[in-house]
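Two proteins follow. First one:
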Amino acid sequence: MDEAAIKKAFDESGVKNELPCAKAFQISEKYGIPKLDIAKYCNKHKVKIRKCQLGCFG
């Protein structure tokens, strides 16, 4: 997982403490970052995933 790349993508996308699931998918596509890496980064840095498309997150 390239934390620097994910942090940069989040900063450019305005992500702070919350990340809507659809936006996570958009960031993954735009920056070429695997969705699993985004999820791991969110868990590690306490970024809440919201509006999960699969109903897994609140």
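Second one, unrelated to the first:
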Amino acid sequence: MAFTIAYYHPLVLATIEAWPVDVLADYARLVELLSNHGPVIGMPHSRALGQGPFESRPRGRSGTGRALDCFVQDRRIVIVHAFPKKTRATPGRDLAIARQRAKEIQRG
């Protein structure tokens, strides 16, 4: 049974669509995995960031991106934040944004 992928806001999708073509292609592959298997597809594709959200890890020769998502009931996964990866660790600011948005979605 498939999962539905949604985006918190059109700007999240626009950020992803601005990634280099090779990173975007890997992201498309990861979204397919997410929609078929759910939010826990495991390393190296995805990992949990503490209690959440999950971090999808698309990459290509020209760079790396990160898409942070949360699982919502009824087999729905919402991509709450995305950014180009430039540092080794996920920046605290990006993680805080994703966690706040995930809380908003969970509350309804």
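SUMMARY FIELD: The CA atoms of residues 57 and 66 lie 5 Å apart. The helical segments are 10-17, 21-37, 92-107.
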